[in-house]
Amino acid sequence: MRRVHRAAAASLGLLLVTSLTACASETDSYCEDLQAQKQKLADLALESGKPGKDVLGQTLDVWRDLRDKAPGDIEDEWTTLVFALEGLVDAFHQAGTTPDKFNPASPPPGVSKQEAQNLRDAAAELASERVRKAGDAVEQHARDVCKVDLGLSS
Length: 154
Known about the structure:
By secondary structure, the protein is mainly α.
């Protein structure tokens, strides 16, 4: 009977070590990806301030990739960020315009009042407290766990 308990304990121990190793490996891989994408995110942020530049889709692609690779303890926060940015990207797509052409005070011709309102709502969601907190949590996790400063937090 003791052999059965020892075998079960050994199996449980092996499972625990394997799980912890997989978790550490997942986090290490995420941290490497985070470090690799840091410059791209910085470049996209700089580009976004230039006239005629629409980098929302490219930023969304990077955020989706990082969300997909994020360890479980930060995955929900990445999902919040991605969902909010997807809303804005979708609103621009549905309105048939881009950030550099859209002025909330005077929407371009062809953008309906409802589409303009959808854009304002999506932008407000991206700037919301909930999304800001998610960004702060992602940034804090990146600094604490990965030793990477993404510059996402407000």
